[in-house]
Amino acid sequence: MKMETKKHKQEIGTGIDKLHDDILIAVLSCMSLKDAVRTSVLSSRWRYLWMFTSGTLDFDDWNTSTGKIMKREKFKALVNRVLNLHQGSRVDNLVIRFTNLCYQFRTSEIDSWIYFAMRKKVKGFELDFSVDDGFHCCYKFPSIEELLLLSPSSTFGSLRCLKLVDVDIDDEVIRYFLASCPYIEHLCIRDSDATMNLEIVGPLPNLKKLEISNCLNLRSLEISATNLVSCTYQGRKISSPFKKTPNLTELTLGGKFCHSFAYEPNKHSSYSDQLVKLVLNFQTVGRERPIASPDLHKLYFLERLDLNIVSIGCRSLFFFTSLIKASPNLRKFKIKIEYFTYNQQSTALRLNRGRMELFPVVTSATTGGFLHKNLKVIEMCGYIGLRSEDEFIMQLIKVAALSLDVVFIDTQTDYHFYCAKESYGTNALQTSSELYDRQRRHAICCATDLKRKCISQIKFVIT
Questions:
Q1: Is 11 buried (19+), middle (13-18) or exposed (0-12) by CB count in 10 A?
Q2: Which residues are CB-contacts of 273 (< 8 A; sequence separation ≥ 6)?
Q3: pLDDT digit string (tens) for 32-82?
Q4: Burial level of 272, CB count in 10 A (0-12/13-18/19+)?
Q5: Can you name the residues that pair with 212 across neighbouring β-strands?
Q6: If DSSP codes are grouped into helix, strand and coil, which group holds residue 127?
Q7: Nearest-5° angle of CA 235, CA 240, CA 244?
Q8: What's the rounded Cα separation, in Å, for the pair 434 and 75?
Q9: Most buried residue among 7, 12, 309, 390 by CB atoms closer than 10 A?
Q10: How does DSSP classify residue 297?
Q11: pTM (2 decimals)?
Q12: What is the pLDDT of residues 392-431, one digit of tens each?
């Protein structure tokens, strides 16, 4: 029996060995980089095959399995070694996420990664140097002259997706990408301090998705892309950037521009009435006092509305009912709430000189008095069992009583963790964990009580 098994394995191995190298390389190209490299131990023939793969080279210094960051020099050595060993003529995607970068790094090393991407005619290229603590690495993307000088025979002509996070890139270099990359479909520029006056204009027949976020020095933005479908802009309040976007249906807004959309709706009517999906990321307004618009511009085609807000305990949420009223064909509404803890609120007040304005506070009488005939799904994330949350949900159930099918309430939130940490500190992990569990159970009980008060035919899902 053992002889038959051994013979069967030999037959399988012989079958694979008969395959041409090109076929084996094509198979390896469908694997992750880590798995493809592992095959090099199978035999002497397989040792170098991974070097000719044309799939995705994905590097990340954050190890999700261990929760640790790879040492800086070790990560750079890994990237440089793999790129230097690669012998194939092309690579589909190059992704490098380097969160452990520091001020004293050699720019030439990162430049070499960019030139590798050019030589290999990548379709997707991502550089992500972001970190959670807000540190900005100040890496400057090469100028057009530097790109052409150091790699004169190579271009990004095959590029379809470019994502740069925490990389400073000049306006003229972005224009160069748009002009020389006819197939580009997705462009993301996030946390670039060098981007100031940006123009996304031209034929751009394939550009479908665009993100410009948190570019602190951005003064103006113009977008004219006839086939653009999805756009994200998070930043300062500027004149409406959407000049010619007839196919734009999905929009995500953040920063002061998001506040302008909600509090000054008439300034956005030229494009807002064509939206099908809208995501609004409300942040603290600082010392400015927001004023609720008495009547929002109608969003007739909007089917999904997502709100991500920052709030303090017990603050009324009725203001957001006006957005639902302005969207008569809305089918799904989702709101995610992040609450300030006591220490976080104190810090915010200190930074804003004792004054912190969030979204406007209005009464249920002001926002009620209408019926919504199409709203099917309501979802609240970050629920902690406050009266203001229950009142808001009950108001939505009331206005959508004829159409509502299901209410989702998610009690998972970092608020419980931060409260426990402030109460007991990091040294009392067991006590903090017990407090977290107790607060979570309280939120679930409150959500269950809310369910009992509602119409029986409406389904409640509590997690």
A1: exposed
A2: 297, 298, 299, 300, 301
A3: 767 766 766 566 556 566 677 778 899 999 887 777 888 888 999 999 999
A4: buried
A5: 189, 233
A6: strand
A7: 120
A8: 38
A9: 309
A10: P
A11: 0.87
A12: 999 999 999 999 999 999 999 888 777 777 666 655 555 6
